[in-house]
Design brief:
This protein is mainly α and about 575 residues long. About 65% of the residues lie in helices and about 0% in strands. The chain contains 18 helices and two strands. The protein has helices spanning about 1-80, 90-105, 150-155, 160-165, 170-235, 240-250, 255-265, 280-295, 320-330, 335-355, 360-370, 380-400, 405-415, 440-445, 465-480, 515-540, 545-560, 565-575; strands at about 420, 445-450. The longest helix is centred in the first third of the chain and has 81 residues, at about 1-80. About 20% of the residues are buried.
């Protein structure tokens, strides 16, 4: 008992230490996020200051140029005054007009004395040689060049780059980007800490169950020994001791523990109140979710649909491939040798194109052309069906473990369970209840699908293919389910005001503890569904119960699915009757 209590104490201490460490990492992450926001705020303020300084300097330069222009105009006016000739003022002109009118009324035509012209006044510039003096527009020399003494030559231009250097804006931007990098580092540290916490929690759970089982077994053994001692020492209590022996013999420790766990789960204050799926790994689910948000889950290192190294075959254009697929479904051979030979050449060409590794885009075209024929699932004849099976086998042979190859193989798996031929030689299966079977039921029982011809293909024996297929299915399901969008709120949207700030998506470390647990449970549900579907497909394509169970165990451990979900998948596979 003392050893059990000591082990429980050490486990509890380790669990508390890891929890404190996780809390410290969480606080460090929040501090880094606050520092990043403050840095970007300083960048925004510095950009506004730079804009104001540039605008003020441009205004000062404009005012200086205006003052210079006014000074040039004044100098031009003074220069014109020096070279001006006499002119009559307005009042003198009106006096002359009035005197002429009066003399004409009196009938006197004696010439009038004009006023003497003053020496000051505007001089007629028409007689001056061109290019002499100053320019009439801006007071500068006639060749348009400014003198070395002109203030416009010495006035600096308002450069935004220099103002940014003065306000240390590049340094502030670098500090803000460094703060964002610190946030990413703190998030990675927190994720590692949470992974260690999950491992410690599972270890503590197993140790606690072992300690509880040992203590209960010890108590049961002690009760049995006490009953035996009392039976030997006190004969008069023999009847009571016999009853006690029966009760003690019926003790089932595992059943009692299960009853205790079920009662503990119903109570919110219990240690396992989160439900049946509380023993799954939260850190691994958050890592899958983080990789999905960044766009890298389930995708290999570069898997384009077609490469530049792929040779372009003019004889195998997409239209010709689609026509060849249509020929498989629409051609009626009926013993015609010419049609049979042409049909065989078409099948051989399609098989050659589909089996070559480099023809990735052509394999995709063949898959989409086959998918377009799903409405005509029944084949016209045996040769048509055998040719279609050969094309399917060639497509699977050319598929690799990259994203495009896995996608084509998955489509072939689906389509192979769609196209069929009626087996006319198979006798009708009598119904179990003695009543005659309906024509539709009899026809379905006589169908031979393409899947039956692909069971022994070598691709099904590669574990890496099934692993990549699961990753791709999980990625597609997460994309359609929108797990992170369920937790997106208006107050979490990053509204950076600077043009240098990056627009970040909602990440797992932006969620609360309760939201992280909920997101992890949703990811586990997606992995559980896709893993069950692929394990079912492995059984249908002849991989066997042993390989299917091994695949379920391996991927369940890799994705840290709850034990109850792992057990459910294995029980479904073991209890599933193999198809004949």
């Amino acid at each position: 008992a003392e050893h059990t209590a000591e082990r429980a104490y050490h486990r509890e201490t380790a669990l508390k230490d890891m929890q404190y460490k996780a809390n410290d990492c969480e606080a460090a992450l929040q501090y880094c996020k606050l520092q990043a926001d403050r840095r970007w705020g300083m960048v925004h303020q510095a950009e506004e200051t730079v804009t104001k300084i540039v605008e003020s300097r441009m205004l000062e330069r404009s005012q200086a140029r205006e003052r210079l222009r006014m000074a040039d105009l004044q100098a031009q006016q003074s220069e014109m005054d020096k070279h001006s000739v006499a002119f009559a003022t307005e009042s003198e002109i009106w006096d002359i007009v009035n005197a002429a009118t009066k003399s004409m009324e009196d009938g006197d035509f004696t010439p009038l004395d004009l006023p003497a012209a003053p020496m000051a006044g505007v001089m007629d510039q028409s007689g001056r040689p061109e290019g002499s003096g100053v320019n009439a527009q801006n007071g500068s020399p006639p060749d348009g060049r400014t003198t070395p003494e002109s203030p416009s030559n010495s006035m600096p231009m308002a450069s935004r780059a220099e103002v940014e250097q003065e306000c240390n804006l590049p340094g502030l931007r670098s500090a803000a980007l460094a703060a964002d990098q610190a946030v990413e580092d703190a998030a990675q540290t927190l994720l590692n800490c949470l992974s260690t916490l999950d491992t410690t929690r599972r270890s503590a759970r197993v140790a606690g169950e072992a300690s509880l089982l040992s203590a209960c077994n010890s108590q049961a053994e002690s009760l049995q020994r006490m009953a035996q001692v009392e039976r030997r020492s006190i004969e008069e209590r023999l009847a009571n001791l016999e009853q006690l022996e029966k009760v003690v013999a019926e003790i089932d420790v595992r059943q009692d523990l299960n009853m205790y766990i079920r009662a503990d789960k119903k109570e919110r204050g219990g240690s396992t109140w989160m439900g049946e799926y509380d023993d799954g790994g939260i850190a691994s689910a958050l890592a899958v979710l983080s990789s999905h948000v960044e766009g890298s889950t389930g995708m290999g290192p570069g898997s384009p649909t077609s490469t530049w190294a792929e040779e372009i075959d003019e004889e195998a254009s997409p239209e010709m491939l689609e026509d060849a697929i249509s020929e498989i479904f629409d051609t009626e051979l009926n013993g015609n040798d010419d049609k049979s030979n042409a049909f065989e050449k078409t099948i051989e060409k399609l098989c050659r194109i589909a089996s070559e590794k480099k023809n990735k885009s052509k394999r995709s075209t063949l898959c989409y052309a086959l998918n377009a024929k799903r409405t005509s699932a029944e084949m016209m004849g045996g040769k048509n069906f055998e040719g279609l099976c050969r094309v399917f086998d060639a497509i699977l042979t050319g598929c690799d473990h990259e994203a495009g190859g896995v996608a084509n193989a998955k489509m072939c798996m689906m389509l192979s369970q769609t196209f069929y031929i009626i087996d006319e030689d198979n006798p009708e299966t009598p119904p179990s209840n003695g009543e005659p079977a309906s024509p539709s039921a009899t026809q379905r029982s006589n169908r031979i699908y393409v899947q039956t011809k692909l069971i022994a293909h070598a691709l099904w024996g590669e574990d890496d293919f099934w692993d990549q297929a699961l990753n791709q299915c999980v990625t597609e399901s997460l994309t359609h389910s929108g797990v992170m969008q369920n937790f997106d709120r208006a107050d979490r949207r990053n509204s950076n005001r600077s043009e240098w700030a990056q627009t970040r998506k909602l990440r797992w470390f932006d969620l609360t503890h309760a939201e992280r647990s909920e997101a992890a449970s949703q990811v586990h549900a997606v992995v559980f569904a896709q893993l069950g579907a692929l394990a079912h497909s492995m059984m249908e394509f002849g991989c066997g119960i042993k390989r299917s169970c091994s695949f379920v165990r391996r991927m369940s451990v890799r994705n840290q699915l709850p034990i109850s979900q792992r057990t459910m998948l294995l029980q479904h596979l073991i209890g599933r009757k193999p198809e004949k």
